[in-house]
Amino acid sequence: MEQQGDEFIRVGSPSEIEVLLDQLIQPGGASLLLDRPGSAPMPVVVMEQAPPASMLLDITAVREIVGELKRGMGFRLLGQVHGKMIRTPSLKALQVEALQGRVQCQCDYPHYLEEMQRREAYRARLRLGMEVGAILRGTEGEGDVTVQGDLKDLSQQGCQLELPSSAATLLAEAALVEIELCFPNGSRFTVQAAPRHKVADSDRQTLRVGFQFHACSAEQERKLWFFVREIERESSRYGDEPDVGRLPSMLFQSQSSGASPSVGRRNLMSYPTPMARRLARVAGYLDAQLLELQQGDDVDPVQLSRHADMLLQLAEEDIEALLFATRCLGQEPVLVRHGLGVAVHMLALAGTSSVPRDVRKALAASAMIHDLGKGLLPSGLIAAGSFGPDEHIQLKQHVDLLVQRMGRCQWLSEKVLHAVVVSANERLDGSGYPAGVMSEGLSELARMSAVVDVVDAMRRNRADRPAWRIDAVYRHLLKSPQQFDPRWVKRYVQRFGLRPVGSLVRFSGGAMGWIQRLDQQGKPFQVQLTDEMAPPEETMGEVLRGDVESRLGGMVEEVPVST
């Protein structure tokens, strides 16, 4: 035997080959996999072997492949023997004929086999951009319950799913559940499994749950082996040194190009506007990218570029609808909400008339991810209610932690990246971080970034204080010219107004409503009524358009709500 790549061991001894093939000469013992993209294992019967000349297969169950075999298409045989998955090299049919209603194929005899030992600890991990939905079915109380989630890794023995936190009750009561994996190309796989361990993420409102498969049949084992290999194959195209020459796995080719997966944890999330639902796709990317960073990976250049294009397209379509959508992402992690809030407001402030598109794209990309480095800090630091000198030192490290993971994003303008990711935390008087740069060393983009970043941050709840009202934020910045460039503060106020889109306001008539659009004078032109001092939801009230204040009275005050 000799060790091959991809965890296979090559078996070349004729006697060993014969022994292993003997194990496949039984119903359900083998599958056939055609050498073409998108093939899936198909059931065949190995009838007899005639070493070293040929083998005889019964392919009655898959007679539709007869034409391809006769035309010389290659194939492999797959099987399981004593807990090991085995496969042949590519073989070809020597003769195909029908006898007494059965279809038989005489084929090459394999000169070697490859076997892979099942390993309990080995799991094929899905990388950023690889999405497989999962449906979890079980019994809760006296009724059947269905929960949707996402596959994170897969092995011969089990898998790890990310589920909504609402699945906790089902998992606590069920000894066994049914898991159905739903691949983008439409392939489905169902298996019984027992939950073994779970980790809750309160910020993301999720559970990461490990499952052990239960009583898998030989056919299920073969399919699992195929899925694990295809996930590995696709994953190899996404790593630090991607195998760009490798063809993509057909399992991950969506049936409708560009469509969101129809099954998954996010599929059941609700958003109050169509634009918010579209923005949620970008939020989903940022959420996944944050997890990739926490697992030691770099920022993915392809996915960052793709979603920066997506965000830019949304901004060009309807910037006011997008501004409101940034206030509708209450189910997302705070670093994701903040990144998108900063990105959209920077695009709105920069405008489109004189800024080249590639610069706006770099601006959107840099702003989206600018704070993700905080997710790499020690657990609990961001949630701390107070910071001492040591905590402040730790906090400032988030900038360098992210920059170290940006090396593969060579398409991204270094100047824009530095101004938005690094210099947004600097202040004109040198009191900022990470380098304490003073005013003469800060570009116009860095000065703008600092203003947009701090406005968005102050309008959100933090562990040590509640969200600020926008008028209080403006006063603070205008009283701090030594830290924030007054020109950019005034431009911000002029662009977004005293009651910006996305503000929850109370009118003199007593009604409350979310401002969704402003007229040219900065007055509310579109407002959606609500009775709740909570982030926007699908259940909000009537949408009013036109001269809103004549119907509701003048705006009395903003109601601060952290979104």
Automatic annotation (TrEMBL):
Matching InterPro entries: HD/PDEase_dom, HD_GYP_dom, PilZ_domain
Residues of the HD-GYP domain: 311-508
Pfam family for this entry, one: PilZ
Superkingdom of source: Bacteria
UniProt cross-references to Gene3D superfamilies, sorted A to Z: Hypothetical protein af1432, predicted glycosyltransferase like domains
PANTHER family, per the entry: CYCLIC DI-GMP PHOSPHODIESTERASE PA4108, CYCLIC DI-GMP PHOSPHODIESTERASE PA4108-RELATED
UniProt protein name: Phosphohydrolase
